[in-house]
Amino acid sequence: MGYDLYRADHPILRREGAVATEAPDDARYLRLDANAMERVREALANVGVLNESYLRPLVPAEGAERDRALRIQAPEGEGVPLFKLCFNDGAWLSERECPLAAAGLRAMLEATRAKLEPLEHERELFALLESFAVFCEGCAAAGGFFVH
Which of 33, 35, 83, 107 is the most buried (most CB within 10 A)? Predict the structure, then answer.
């Protein structure tokens, strides 16, 4: 079990948002296992990027209502709804939400590195958060990304 993150302009995404079974290895795709996504969520929560006040909407199986439910955004300045990073059902992080996530992670990483050198076991976490920030930055200019 894991999360396949596809940049909005990725050719593997079909018009209705369904995803093909193969996951190419390029800058428009990021794969996170369940543990890695949990670490990303924890870090984003710690820097105040996640908005936990949004309940996950009931998501219809298909159609325009499904797309609408998976594209809910918090008002400007209120962060990213947490549910978008908890399920792999096609939620969309918008081009407005991606820079919030990237900036929050980068600020945390820079502040931590300025105070101390990461220990060996922390370097893997830092690399994960850095790769997620880079992915979000790339997605910001390309329409966001979908979580499958």
Answer: 83
